Amino acid sequence: MYTKAAKIIKSSRRCVTFSGAGISVESGIPPFRGENGLWNKYDPQTFDIQYFYSHTRQSWEVIREIFYDLFGKVRPNAAHYALVELEANNMLSSVITQNVDNLHYDAGSKVVHEFHGSFKNLVCLKCRAKYKISQIDLNVLPPVCKKCGGILKPDVIFFGEAIPEPACTHSFNEAKKADCFILIGTTGTVAPANTIPSIAKSNEAKIIEINPYKSEYTSSVTDIFLEEKASIAMEKLMEEIDKL
Ligand code: APR
């Protein structure tokens, strides 16, 4: 299976990765669903945009705990670094990620489409001014805009918000052009992100899936299922690619 997947990647014209929370689990970030899932501990409505507007402080307290206390300390793992190596060797065109943890950029990936935004940035709800997290003191919640006093929100997509541009357009274009699509660590349960692998499939892309458990894609979209944790599977794949 790994040899076959390695041959597809090496011979592909345009290979694209589509990553979900599972690629960051070995960096110490729990997934949203399944064992130790964040949604088992926190109510997803905290990340609904209407709740954020009506319960801003309560929402921010959970956001700070998950994104800034936890995410702030984690580092990329071998799976992130393997993707950087594939990109450097011209075997990967881009990463489309549903994750907001910035770990693909931290590892050194150059072309990353952050379909749900990034916790590293904040945006003012009033004047749309943007800030880096390093500019903001989260000891005072909710943080406010230095320009207009408006409430700041992490620049990540809450349930009920539109997917950001240009990430949205770039991601769907990649799905249409790719002839090899590597799915890593995603249940495939959240739209519209979850339509991207099916678009790639409908355009004849070969779908390689890495996940220790089956997902919504495994029986319908996936061509090669590597039933393994991301870092182990990616290291095995890189070894096989090096042999070709
Ligand atoms: N390596 C690879 N995959 C793993 C690992 C691992 N070590 N551990 C768990 N997984 C898999 C799980 O089997 C599961 O399929 O990662 C997946 C995590 O699924 P979700 O938590 O649903 O994450 P994701 O698919 O990215 O969620 C999509 O939902 O809540 C929203 O906006 C949020 O971007 C997120 C979206």
In short:
The protein is of the alpha/beta class and 244 residues long. The protein is built from nine helices and nine strands. It has two domains: 151 residues, TPP-binding domain (Rossmann fold), CATH 3.40.50.1220; 83 residues, 2-Layer Sandwich (SIR2/SIRT2 'Small Domain'), CATH 3.30.1600.10.
Structure write-up:
The chain is of the alpha/beta class and 244 residues long. It has two domains: 1-28 and 76-116 and 163-244, Rossmann fold; 30-73 and 118-156, 2-Layer Sandwich (SIR2/SIRT2 'Small Domain'), CATH 3.30.1600. 34% of the residues lie in helices and 17% in strands. It contains nine helices and nine strands. It has helices spanning 2-11, 38-41, 49-54, 56-70, 78-88, 103-107, 167-177, 196-202, 230-243; strands at residues 15-19, 94-97, 112-114, 117-124, 130-132, 152-156, 180-184, 206-210, 224-226. The chain has a six-stranded parallel beta sheet, with helices on both faces. Strands 5-4-6 form a three-stranded antiparallel beta sheet, with helices on one face. Helix 8 links the parallel strand 7 and strand 8. It is elongated. 43% of the residues are buried. The structure holds adenosine-5-diphosphoribose. Adenosine-5-diphosphoribose is lined by residues 20-22, 25-26, 31-34, 37, 98, 116, 185-187, 189-190, 210-213, 215, 229-230.
